[in-house]
Give the backbone structure.
Amino acid sequence: GQQVMQIPQYQHVQEGEDFTTYCNSSTTLSNIQWYKQRPGGHPVFLIQLVKSGEVKKQKRLTFQFGEAKKNSSLHITATQTTDVGTYFCAVPDSGGGADGLTFGKGTHLIIQP
Amino acid sequence: ETGVTQTPRHLVMGMTNKKSLKCEQHLGHNAMYWYKQSAKKPLELMFVYNFKEQTENNSVPSRFSPECPNSSHLFLHLHTLQPEDSALYLCASSPEGGAQHFGDGTRLSIL
């Protein structure tokens, strides 16, 4: 099945610093989704990227989809304690439709006040 | 409140027990999913149902048996589980190709 590599596994930042997590696939993706999971919680959908080179923003979060549709990134500007959690990218497990997702291993964001 | 409800929230069972996990979604979605999340591995897709029909079984051992009686309900029947099956089991639903909405999960411990 589909595989996606996500780095880094852990990221420690001081509150107010920026944060970035990256996902890479060896194959061209139809789309990529991003989820956030707070400690003790469940994954919550953030965004879906579909178009080559797409950039989307949600307040301090910026999502990018690579031109070749093989990589993606999530960047958080000026982190806050509410940003703590694990950020996952996820790609369709097979070709489109009501398919499950293959998740990256996630990046754990740890914020030091 | 996510619109996806899972019960029970916690379950402790012996290896010879039979139990079932339940998931119910109130979002009108056509697709439902079971995922396993353990400490050492990323979220793993187990089963996919679309319009009540199983469309994917990700090489899951037969001691896990899913059931989808209608588009709103999904069960995971458990039988003769192993200690390595201890994990958080997450149910999700989605419109076709859209964002997945997860329940709070069932934390399963096998003694």
